């Protein structure tokens, strides 16, 4: 273990792995955790983008970037090993990585692409937790947040397979919370449309029209999600597990998605 300075704040001395965090929601979550005193390890596909993220997060004293595919077992093992070697512990896991390469009705679904969606959005989340559990959480406890979607809570035409994968992730969150309590808490967040590159196709060129369906009158931004994730990891949420928090500007209340 390399001796690193620790910050101040509610997560001082704690370390988190945040997957899919070179930009967007993942990077905002990592930034919020660092702001609250944690050290973070961020993952993504491209090392240059991760290097930029690490610099933004405060440099090597506070952050480490490890590139690879989220569903690659070797990448998972390497990331967990490097986290322990660098920061000495893993208190939190945020499964943020998600893909959606298919759009359209289920009857036209490319099944090979669908299998990839399930691998990345669901099974990889379990695999990451297995690795972190073996390395640290199983003995020391901690907290996990899975980033799902409101599409996992209501039918979402056009992105049905993506929604189904997020529904599976929500159910896995509940199962894991039961299995891993009392020492490990597992929760999820379910964002609606957040202004990121990943979601651009859902609002680009018509943001005002899309936002009109939201009682709060706007689309989400990454920091909206980061604040809720930080809360669920924190002691303030110490009696909350197995829950999925919709962070949606009121969209579901207004009957959105269907």
From TrEMBL:
Residues 14-192 form the Ketoreductase domain. Transmembrane segments: none annotated. The keyword Oxidoreductase applies. It comes from the Bacteria. Gene3D superfamilies: NAD(P)-binding Rossmann-like Domain. PANTHER family: DEHYDROGENASE/REDUCTASE (SDR FAMILY) MEMBER 4, DEHYDROGENASE_REDUCTASE 4. Belongs to the short-chain dehydrogenases/reductases (SDR) family. This is Short-chain dehydrogenase/reductase SDR. It comes from Nakamurella multipartita (strain ATCC 700099 / DSM 44233 / CIP 104796 / JCM 9543 / NBRC 105858 / Y-104).
């Amino acid at each position: 273990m390399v001796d690193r300075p620790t910050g101040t704040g509610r997560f001082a001395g704690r370390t988190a792995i945040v997957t899919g965090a070179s930009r967007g929601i993942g990077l905002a979550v990592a930034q919020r955790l660092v702001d609250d005193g944690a050290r973070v390890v961020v993952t993504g596909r491209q090392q240059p983008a991760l290097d930029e993220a690490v610099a933004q997060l405060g440099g090597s004293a506070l952050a480490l970037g490890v590139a690879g595919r989220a569903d690659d077992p070797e990448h998972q093992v390497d990331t967990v090993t490097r986290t322990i070697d660098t920061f000495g512990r893993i208190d939190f896991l945020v499964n943020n990585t998600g893909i959606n390469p298919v759009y359209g009705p289920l009857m036209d679904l490319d099944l090979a692409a669908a299998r990839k969606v399930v691998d990345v959005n669901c099974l990889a989340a379990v695999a990451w937790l297995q690795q972190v559990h073996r390395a640290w959480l199983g003995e020391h406890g901690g907290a996990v947040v899975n980033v799902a979607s409101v599409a996992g809570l209501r039918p979402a035409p056009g992105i049905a397979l993506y929604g189904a994968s997020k529904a599976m992730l929500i159910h896995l969150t509940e199962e894991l919370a039961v299995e891993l309590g009392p020492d490990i808490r597992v929760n999820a967040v379910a964002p609606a449309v957040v202004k990121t590159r990943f979601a651009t196709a859902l609002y680009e060129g018509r943001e005002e029209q899309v936002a009109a369906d939201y009682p709060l009158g706007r689309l989400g931004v990454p920091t909206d999600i980061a604040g809720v994730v930080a809360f669920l990891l924190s002691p303030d949420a110490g009696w909350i597990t197995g829950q999925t928090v919709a962070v949606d500007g009121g969209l579901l209340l207004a009957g959105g998605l269907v």
